[in-house]
Amino acid sequence: MSPQLRVLVVFDHPRRNSFCGAVLDRFVAGLVAAGHQAEIADLRAENFDPRLPPADEPDWEKPGKIYSAEVLREQERIARNDALAFVFPIWWWSFPATTKGWIDRVWNKDWAYDGAKLPHQKALLIGTAAGDEAGYLKRGYDEAMRTQLLVGVMNYCGIQDASLEFLFDVMQSPETRAILLARAEELGAAF
């Protein structure tokens, strides 16, 4: 059995009681069953402001800039965990704006890139998609997302063991949803 991890699970959906919320619950159930600890960052419920104010703008002229109190709290929450997971609906072949803004503000210069990198062992991104796998493969959306999110964000910020799991066809049927929820729990148990 792998060592117990503290995992920050970042959730971004306007409705906690959505299918995406059910994916979060099952993923966390799998984590807990495997002996890991889960801390949930529900960005919408916490009213995280994704807009980048001047206080949190990277400053290339001042290495080691101290960011806003809100960003420092988020950085502390990230730092107390060993690994990261993200549960989100795929919108425009990426994260929703709140997650993107959270990364823009919190994963800042000299903390997550440039002067320092994130020390996390691993990251797992779980995206729910109304579309089917064939459509993503045909148009290259899957590889574009892997390049953007895994290489361009996770790897760039120091997390080399990062993967993206697509849960396709979430609107297809109750049977498909049951299979996807079981997969979410498996992902947590195997984390």
Brief digest:
With 191 residues, the chain is an alpha/beta fold. The protein has helices spanning 19-33, 69-79, 97-106, 133-139, 141-155, 174-189, and strands at residues 6-11, 37-42, 83-89, 122-128, 162-167.
Low-confidence stretches: none
Q: What is the tally of beta strands? A: 5
N-to-C CA distance: 11 Å
Give the helices and strands as they follow along the chain. EHEHEHEHHEH
Radius of gyration: 17 Å
H/I helix tally: 6
Shape: globular
Largest sheet: number of strands, sense, barrel closure? 5 strands, parallel
> Order of strands side by side in the largest beta sheet?
2-1-3-4-5
The percentage helix is 25-40%
User: Which class best fits the helix and strand makeup?
Assistant: alpha/beta
Strand-residue fraction? 15-25%
Mean pLDDT: 95
Spell out the blueprint of helices and strands.
Layout: E1 6-11, H1 19-33, E2 37-42, H2 69-79, E3 83-89, H3 97-106, E4 122-128, H4 133-139, H5 141-155, E5 162-167, H6 174-189
Parallel strand pairs: 1-2, 1-3, 3-4, 4-5
Keywords for this structure?
single chain, 191 residues, alpha/beta, 5-stranded parallel beta sheet, 5 strands, 17% strand
Can you describe what's shown?
- The protein has helices at residues 19-33, 69-79, 97-106, 133-139, 141-155, 174-189; strands spanning 6-11, 37-42, 83-89, 122-128, 162-167.
- The termini are close together.
- Helix content is 39%, strand content 17%.
- It has 6 helices and 5 strands, in the order E-H-E-H-E-H-E-H-H-E-H.
- The mean pLDDT is 95.
- Helix 1 (19-33) runs parallel beside helix 6.
- The chain has a 5-stranded parallel sheet, sandwiched between helices.
- With 191 residues, it is of the alpha/beta class.
